[in-house]
Each structure stands twice: as structure tokens, then as C-alpha cells.
Specification:
79 residues, alpha+beta, Metal Transport, Frataxin, Chain A, 46% helix
Length: 79
């Protein structure tokens, strides 16, 4: 099992366990592209989804609800 697979498995098991820099690595590995940054808000887009993901990041972390939303998106649309 590669590091990327371990990181994904850890995230899906417990979304709150990762900091934002790890989530960003995971997003890029899954094919998301950074669309832009507006202040503390990082925006990502995936070609298979119309949705634009926005993460307000403070102190290298984002709120639990954004992490859970991402986990649901990964499970429902990307896996």
C-alpha cells in the first residue's frame, strides 16, 4: 500500500485526523485542481464534478464540516 493510499484510507476512516496540508496533497492526488485562493479560502475543482469545493483555512486546519463534505464527495463520486 502506497503512502497516498494510506493517507486516503486514514482520511475516509476519520476525516478530522488530517491537517489541511495533508488534505491538499490528497486532493491533488485525486485529480482536483486548485482554482484559486481568495484570502484564507482555497477553492478546488474536479473534472468529474460540477461542484467547487471551498475550504476556509486558518492555522493549517479547516472545520470539521468541510472535511466531512469532502469525504462524502470522494465516496459518492470518485470511488
Amino acid at each position: 500500500m502506497t503512502r497516498k493510499e494510506k493517507l486516503l484510507k486514514k482520511f475516509l476512516r476519520n476525516p478530522e485526523s488530517l491537517r489541511f496540508n495533508e488534505i491538499e496533497k490528497l486532493l491533488i492526488d485525486l485529480g482536483f485542481k486548485k482554482v484559486g485562493i481568495n484570502g484564507s479560502h482555497y477553492r478546488y475543482k474536479h473534472q468529474l464534478s460540477r461542484d467547487l469545493l471551498t475550504f476556509p483555512v486558518h492555522h493549517n486546519n479547516c472545520k470539521r464540516k468541510y472535511k466531512i463534505e469532502l469525504a462524502k464527495l470522494i465516496i459518492n463520486k470518485l470511488l
